[in-house]
């Protein structure tokens, strides 16, 4: 139900001209009984606000601690969002404004995480070496 609501109306920015509603069903936490309610994009946006602040803060901290060579690559190429969260309405624009970087959404963002994981399993031994050797691991 939450995933369906996120896909249908989830947004990190509220625009009254683009509002939508979705009916969700589940257990009412106050009564313990099954129930349903209608959520608007504005309500979902408000619920996501605190999470987005944490994500933006984490991205900024990572960028601040990125080695200069890699920072230059990131500045040149921008950020690429993957996973289902990349489909949240407005997340690319919000991150672009917060980081002053180009932000792109990967083609098929929900599939690329699984494809990348599968590809990593093929080379898992060499990845393990890369994380163990002190020359390739940042302390």
From TrEMBL:
Alphabetically, the GO molecular function entries are: ATP binding
TM segment ranges: none
Is the keyword Ligase in the record? no
Task: Give the chief site where it resides.
Answer: cytoplasm
Any idea which UniProt keywords this protein has? ATP-binding, Cytoplasm, Nucleotide-binding
Gene3D superfamilies tied to this protein: 3.30.420.40
Localization, per the record, is: Cytoplasm
Gene Ontology terms: cellular component:
cytoplasm
Report whether Membrane shows up as a keyword of the record: no
The record ties this protein, via PANTHER family, to: CELL SHAPE-DETERMINING PROTEIN MREB
Record's protein name:
Rod shape-determining protein MreB
User: Which organism is this entry from?
Assistant: bioreactor metagenome
Name of the coding gene? mreB_24
